[in-house]
Structures are given as structure tokens and as C-alpha cells.
């Protein structure tokens, strides 16, 4: 179902410079960069279904309560892009899945990587991509074997089950990583 490829299936892989298209900066058109813990806003069409790429970026520098901050920021993006309010149970479940995955990625950065640096959310052609960057050296992966009745170790299992795909991008010579996950809108 999901893998830990360093780039998503639609990407062509690493650029010759060693940087991946998955971690390339978002074009500045329609995107306001955030500094500190303030949220970034971007002009968005009424729906995330329109062919253009829409993006929002949140920097966590000196922020506290980063998991609820990330969820609120993501919820605002979902409203702006037409994923919320939901008209059907499937649409509501898709939006809740996005919020759960962002919570898991940010929580993992807190628990295993000294906290997140940034959250980037992009929406293009009915796919939401979440990217959480941190300075950690570890490699996220679902715990094997998964033990459903035991506490802990469920974060990446949840990400794997809910997402179309996910992976980790590292830039040579730069500390840390970017963990990304992609989720689709309901049909």
C-alpha cells in the first residue's frame, strides 16, 4: 500500500543537484511565507479540485503546542480549499484523515526528532500533500510487527494505512529530513 520512497510516484526522482522535487521550494505565486509561529495564508480557489497547485506553509520556530497548532492550520487550509465543510460522510472522513495524519507526523517529529521545523501543505488535483521537516536523523517506519493492543508505535502504521503514499526526503549535506504523506479526496 505505502512505501518509504524518497519521492512520490509522480516525481521523477532527485534532481542532478541532489535535491528532490518533493522538497523543492513552493513557487511564490499565491503563497505567503510564514515566519515564526504565525500561519501563512495563500489565496485559494473555492475548491482544491481546480488544476492549480495551492500551498500553505507553517514555521514552528519557538512555537508551543505544535500539534494543535498544526491541526488548526491544516483545518483552515481544508476550509479554504473546499474540503470542509463536508457534504457527505466520505468527504468528512477524508478531511479527518488529513487532520489525523498531520497530527501523527508532527507528533513523531516531537517524539523522535527534537520537534518539527516546518509544515508544508499542498493541494493539487484532489491530492493533499503534507510535509513535516525536522532536524532528526532517524528513519520513520511502521513498527513491525504491529501490535494493535499495545500503546505506542502506531503513528507510522496509521500514516501507512490512510495515505496513498508516504516517504522521507533527505538533502545531502543538510541536517534533518522531510517526511511527506499524500492523501486523496473522496471520489
What does this protein structure show overall?
The protein has helices spanning 66-80, 89-112, 155-162; strands spanning 54-59, 116-124, 127-134, 165-169, 177-184. It is of the alpha+beta class and 187 residues long. Strands 1-2-3-5-4 form a five-stranded antiparallel β-sheet, covered by helices on one side. The longest helix has 24 residues, at 89-112. The model is unreliable at 1-49 (pLDDT under 50).
Main traits of this protein?
5 strands, alpha+beta, five-stranded antiparallel β-sheet, disordered N terminus, single chain, 3 helices, 19% strand
Rg over CA atoms, rounded to whole Å, is 16 Å
Q: Quick one: overall form?
A: globular
First CA to last CA: what distance?
18 Å
Q: Give, in spatial order, the strands making up the sheet with the most strands.
A: 1-2-3-5-4
Strand residue percentage: 15-25%
Short structural description:
The protein is of the alpha+beta class. 25% of the residues lie in helices and 19% in strands. The chain has three helices and five strands; from the N terminus they run βααββαββ.
List the helices and strands and how they pair.
Elements: E1 54-59, H1 66-80, H2 89-112, E2 116-124, E3 127-134, H3 155-162, E4 165-169, E5 177-184
Antiparallel strand pairs: 1-2, 2-3, 3-5, 4-5
Helix pairs in contact: 1-2, 2-3
